Amino acid sequence: MKKISLAFAFMGIVGGSSHAQEIKFEEYDLPNGLHVILHQDHTAPVVVTSVMYHVGAKDEQPDRTGFAHFFEHLLFEGTKNIDRGEWFKIVSSNGGKNNANTSDDRTYYYEVFPSNNLQTGLWMESERMLHPIINQIGVDTQNEVVKEEKRLRIDNQPYGNILKAVKQNMFKNHPYRWTTIGEMEHLDAAKLDEFLAFFDKFYVPNNAVLVVAGDFQTDQAKKWIAEYFSEVKKGAPVVKKQYEEAPITKEIHASWEDPNVQIPMVITAYRTPSMKTREARVLDMISSILSGGKSSRLYKKLVDTEKKALEVAALNFSQEDYGTYLIYALPVGETPTQDLVDGISSEIKRLQTDLISEREYQKLLNQFENQFVNANSNVEGVAHSLATYYQLYGDVNLINTEIDIYRSITREEIRDAAKKYLNDNQRLVLQYEPEKTSTK
Is the pLDDT of residue 18 over 70? Predict the structure, then answer.
């Protein structure tokens, strides 16, 4: 779980220093299946209202990718009681802010208001769920918005298509093989009825969790939640399809050309288990050992000592069904990228052979303690964690206990996870290169 630059910067976690405190919460279900989590924190007059739907890019069809991300935008268009274009005006005029984000596994919407506007936040999220306006005008408008986002953040961004290049080689059956933003021709081809059907299937109370976190009174919050959300009808049960990938047993070689880059990059990628597993958390720790700052193993070897790399980083990209472990490096000058691959392999083999030192182990535990606490250092972070632990992990109390899992991981487990998942015959080696100039 490392903060890295370039195409993966958005996946970073910022470290801090503090001590974990128990986060108290209450949870219950409405008759329509909406799960509700309440967390009181009176330290500041702020309240967060958020809804996480268990729908992401993996719930799309291969010829209709990008739907979940599209709905992240579309559901701000307006509702029966919120005119088109008024959503953000209502939020800002009430002293609030709001946003949304989508992954392969879920979609998350949230508002942050002064605590005296809790009712407004709950009303707005119920409006989004109960009767949004989904029409051709909104679809056409947001189609252009998404296209512009893709142009700016991916197509015209150096190294912007790394994740796409990796995913399409790592997965053959699972929908993780496509990107969250999807393909624009799929959105262009989709009819209005398809968008309406997607909403009716996934954006239902029994596929969602509502979190209220911050400065509020529980009895009043429950009253408003019942008033605004009980009217929403329960949807049909959302059955998640299961996909299984055959193990990678032979090194995969692939390449990708990018007109926006001048320096080539090499990526090694390994398929890893679900983020819900203990081993996924062990791999998080391995990422820190390999690339957690300038004192990390890969940085010291390839950047400082051998001066072969401009930059190197490792990331355990954990997801609900599978994970992808990525290591990337940028060469110095004319350094062959194979030298970087060999350097990565040698450091992994060292992890597979020798236990990390006690000093390195204690430093690692301190890093994860800081990261865990920092992620829940304000009500926005707490609200997101509560929703995630419920929706993707099925255990809300992980907000208090997951750090104990990290603390209990041993040096032997770190060695064994590296031996199990990070072998040369289990990886993709991707050459991400500048676009070659064609000659006639």
Answer: no
User: Which helix or strand (DSSP H or E) is residue 227 part of?
Assistant: helix 218-229
Q: Which domain holds residue 169?
A: 6-12+22-229
pTM for this model (two decimals): 0.93
CB atoms < 10 A from the CB of 145, how many? 13
The percentage of residues in the chain with a pLDDT greater than 70, rounded to a whole number, is: 95
CA quadruple 109, 110, 111, 116: dihedral positive or negative? positive
Tokens 């030298």 appear where? Answer: 339
**Closest to 232 measured CA to CA, from 37, 38, 51, 27:** 51
The reply to whether 267 and 177 lie within a common domain is no
Altogether, the residues listed in the chain come to a count of 440
Contact indicator for 319, 274 with CB cutoff of 8 Å: yes
Which amino acid is present at 334?
E
Residue pair 228/49 in contact (Cβ under 8 Å)? The answer is no
* 77 lies in the same domain as 158: yes
Work out the number of other CB atoms within 10 angstroms of the CB of residue 362. 10
Residue 314 lies in a domain: yes
